[in-house]
Amino acid sequence: MTRTDQPADIRTTPRRTVLISGAGIAGPALAFWLNRYGYAVTVVERAPAFRGGGYPIDVRGTALDVVARMGILPQLRDAHIDLRRLTFLERDGGVVASLHPHTVTGGAAGRDLEVRRGDLSDALHTAVRDDVEFLFNDSIDTLDQSGHGADVTFRGGGRRTFDMVFAADGMHSRTREMVFGPEARFHHYLGYCFAVFTMPNTFGLSHETVMWNSPGRAAALYAVGDDDEVHAFLNFASPQPPSDAFRNPEAQRELVASVFADAGWEVPGMIAALRDTDDLFFDAVGQIRMPRWSSGRVALVGDAAWAPSFLTGQGTSLALVGAYMLAGSLARQDHATGFAAYEHSTREFVTMNQGLVGKGGATLFPATPRALEQRNNRLRGLSTIPSGKGQPAHSALTLPEPVGDSFHNG
After folding, report:
1. pLDDT grade for 33, boundaries at 50, 70 and 90
2. Are β-strands 40-45 and 164-167 bridged in parallel, bridged antiparallel, or unpaired?
3. C-beta neighbour count of 382 within 10 angstroms
């Protein structure tokens, strides 16, 4: 494989080896920067290949600086979705307000990006595929740090030793569980569950989202462009997470159908499509909150470390920024010192963006009649023109410059 941007001192010393678990967003971004800083990088991913398509995601604030430094910003600008309208509906289907999305989300019009997840994944893969080893259709089976490195056994049968291992395998990270213990210790349930899937666009929607609300329930149709399909979204309040449904797709379908049984608007058709879809994703809305992001030679990044929930709109941006900060902290320092620097430089930014969750929940999913009425009144009073300033939290961290010509890889 051809590797670039490596200083002479790296080429004449043994390259330290690292394993990244997860080839979503955080994993390839981290692989890019660690490769630049002279590490020999392996990425293991349980899926058989990179995932294309997918739901729209946002790249905002500081994360835009990261993708610019990676050289993929022009590609992402070409893939920008340009959502033009967000319409909120009453329970009876009447229009509450129709606004530019940035007016509601706090995005910076003309700067922030919204792209299909697959487009970002493809850009990241293209940036690293010639320089990084990828092991698809495999995963970590065991991880032992009792020796002089991290000894890993793969489910496919292989066994290797790495200098460091990084968990970038999402909110429900198995790698995190091996090292830090059960997810329940770190998962903070936020009181909602959701189902998302695709269905035919028989509604004439284009570059827009339409959201229906009743107290404690929401249904939305998201048209990325002029596609034949829309992303359908159903969200409902639940005092406790329905644990019995998480591993049973049929139970998920029945639960969602029962919650929305008396709903109007286009919801009956959405429920019919839900029963037939083959791409249903169901989960609880929650955050991961960790007291620390590393243990020994293992560190967490992205949703595995701090999943902020989609209510913040910052999951992707935090993954990109976190990957940049983690790799930069390791460019000239050993793993223990680097991991400490990573937490010191990044945690405040993560905490600030996790704190956006309350605003997102109040806007999208009012749980009581009074809260819904108050939300609707606020929406009616908003300007139809976004401010363009963006949320302060999105840009609250200023990136340090990439480490230059002098690298320490020990």
Report:
1. very high
2. unpaired
3. 13
Contact 37, 331 (CB under 8 A): yes
Specify the pTM: 0.91
Q: Average of pLDDT values for 43-64?
A: 90
Of 235, 228, 237, whose CA–CA distance to 267 is shortest?
235
Q: What is the pLDDT of residue 410?
A: 38
3 state SS for 279-291: CCEEEEEEEECCC
The pLDDT score that the predictor gives to residue 244 is: 86
Maximum CA pair distance of the chain? Answer: 70
> Around Cβ 7, how many Cβ atoms within 10 Å?
15
Strands 208-214 and 159-162: unpaired
Q: Does the pLDDT at position 74 exceed 70?
A: yes
- What is the spatial order of strands in the sheet that 159-162 belongs to? 140-144, 150-154, 159-162
Tell me the residue type at 344. Answer: H
pLDDT at 270: 97
Are 317 and 60 a contacting pair, CB within 8 Å? Answer: yes
Residues in the chain, overall count: 410
pLDDT for 384 equals 56
Calpha distance 220→211 (Å, rounded): 4
Mean pLDDT for all residues in the chain: 90
User: Which whole-number Å values give the CA distances from 343 to 20, 312, 330, in the listed order?
Assistant: 18, 21, 12
**343 three-class SS:** helix
Strand order in the sheet with 229-237: 95-99, 85-89, 208-214, 217-223, 229-237, 187-200, 281-288
Q: Is 216 left (phi over 0), alpha (psi -120 to 50) or beta?
A: left
Name the token pair of 179. Answer: 């090292």
pLDDT for the residue numbered 407: 39
3-state secondary structure of 181: coil
- Return the structure tokens found at 204: 């004439």
Q: Which residues contact 229 (CB under 8 A, 6 or more apart)?
A: 198, 199, 200, 201
Residue 113: its H or E element:
strand 113-116
The pLDDT of residue 4 is above 80: no
Q: Give percent of the chain above pLDDT 70.
A: 91
- Report the distance separating Cα 105 and Cα 129, nearest Å: 34
Q: At what angle do helices 26-36 and 315-330 cross, to 10 degrees?
A: 20
